[in-house]
Write a structure and sequence with these properties.
Length: about 525
Amino acid sequence: MSTSTVHRAGPREWAGLAVLALPTVLLGLDVTVLYLALPSLAEDLRPSSTQTLWIMDAYGFLIAGFLITMGTLGDRIGRRKLLMIGGAAFGAVSVVAACSGSTELLIAARAALGIAGASLMPSTLALISNMFADPRQRSVAIGVWATCFALGMALGPVVGGVMLARFWWGSAFLLAVPVAIVLLVAAPLLIPEYRAPRSGRLDLPSVVLSLVAILPVIYAVKRVAKDGPGAATIGAVVIGLVSAVLFVRRQDRLASPLLDVRLFTDRTFSAALSVLLVGLVGVGGSMLLITQQLQLVEELPPVEAGLWMGPPALMMFVAAIGAPLVARRVPPGIVVAVTLALSTLGYLLLAQVDATGGLARIVIGFGLVYLGLGAIAALGTDLVVGAAPPEKAGSAAAMSETVQELGLALGVAVLGSLASAVYRGRIADDLPAGTPAEVAEAAGDGLAGAASAADLMPDGWFDQAREAATAGLNVAMLVAAVGTLVLSLLSALALRHIGVIGGAPDAEKATLEEQTGARR
């Protein structure tokens, strides 16, 4: 089908995109808003260290676990319907979280927010694929969508700081309430409903297998980042992999599978997912380490550190909107490869940051990293969703978001662990003779622990700790630079068969649509 015969979106669809952007920003904001609220929250509820981890992680765990299920559920009961159910649930549970009087209730609320968030993420992306049938318009709309999530993550610390300066820690959750109200009022007016024809029933055993395949793996990579590898993490990975094999085998036998694994036979779908997965590894690790560098080494207040993240967020916005426009004339594989090469330069700049006066280099380097993120998030997501037949858009959107969640978690685990190992090696050499064991342990846990032990150490020792943490950042960013350069070269090869956006449709997609129709 040529672009000229495809319905082009008008003002109503673009207004609908603005409505879909609201929950997307909110989901990103909810990932990071607790970073500043945690100290006052801990003072009020007094959670144990394990409970604190679950307060922070329950949200991300449940989002990752339920994405595939919710993506397929939206295809079957209606994407707008699921979006509105998820929006209402997110708003209501946010009130519960804000008013939690116990740690257990807050953990349960955070888990429920994760499930509600999982219903919002693929619904928004799949609805964009319905509203913007023209490939050129769809790519720009997805670029806006991708930027909104990152914008929410960047705004989290700033918004959290402003709210905490005036209200109690629970106020950070209440931002979801007005967003939910606007969504429930505007969605029926501006967003069309879509339900896949003859989609069949939801297979509950497949739901269970998908959860058991994803959650242990996400848990393992997060634990490795904090505690290193161990028997528990290895066991979790084995359970996840075995469940994944059983899940795939079951999908092959079902007439209406939870996830149509034949989607992976499309080269565009598989290649774009791979680029998203590997590309987000570097971003996840750098996001963690740069945030720590700004607050613990540069010693910026959290709100000011959040503001310094504004220029990189702007770079991502430029790339997410600009890359689809450039890809109308230049093949997406080339656009992705060039922007990833620029990200490589960003990582190399970050690998040269020192512990004194490195702020400008951090902002410029991280801005180039975010430039590549914007391009791969917009074009990669568009290629994944565009490669799937319309009735499978929810499943494709869920897969896109699942691999990005996994990539971020792997980045934190791999690059965070590498930076920690370098830090521990350096700090062990700098500890004065006769340092008490408990002080040495606190200093070895990280720069935050070193700060708490600084009063017990000789003058100038904490400067050495800051240099050790910066050395860890440098090594991790150098590794990320090498990996990103390799990904740049491989993406040019893996995506070379894809023409410019808005050109002739991919023959593989047409074949997949024919196979899907025959299966129905």
